[in-house]
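Reopening this ticket.

The earlier resolution said the output was attached, but the attachment link was broken on my side. Pasting everything inline this time so it's all in one place.
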Amino acid sequence: MLIDADTQTENKVEPENGKIRIEKIDSWEAFTEVTDQMWEEYQYSNTEIKIGNPLETEDTITKVVMIEPTDPKLERGIQKIYAERYPELISDSKSDIVEQRIYTRTGNTEKETRKKIIKASITGTENDLWDNILKIKQEITNEKRVAMHTLKGIETERLRKIVECVFHGTDTQVHIFKQGGKSNSSGKQRTTYALVLENAGKSYVARETKKRPPSCTGTARWEEA
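Inline output:
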């Protein structure tokens, strides 16, 4: 569980007209003075809570994976999914940047697709988390969007407050993904399709997708899963 470190400061962040002035929160000490007060939704200009998996966002969006002290080898939760997709994240280094560049050519036109993953290890205190978010900010000065995930030891809204204070007033939008809930506004379940291959009278499921696939011919067919 993330805990607060003992802090003292002579500088006070006084609310104006009863509202928190996020732009004046420029240190961990200042943050601790106002973190338990009510923050209005309109005050959050650089962060948003999302439902889902950050790895499902576009490749061009930088991802942040936070390594918790109880899971240094990335063996649980969303961290495990990151490790399975990017094995180079499993190392003794506390911080890493994994960057992949994929080039595709169509005729005489070459297109570059870049994937960037930032790894940050936290020690278990909230002020250390603040310092890590600051370091991440320095690494992505030119990024417009960033995707990160929630942590087990801290409430999502409190994590959002920390990230908002660090990125407030910048050109970067940070989406914080958490599990659970409904991912689409209608609340309806999306149909899953399975690609079924037939061989010698036996059927095999070769692939599943949530998008409506094109028609197949021969021994392959799409079925609702």
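Reporter confirms the inline version is readable. Residues 22-178 form a domain with the Leucine Aminopeptidase, subunit E; domain 1 fold (CATH 3.40.220.10). The helical segments are 28-34, 77-85, 126-139, 156-167.
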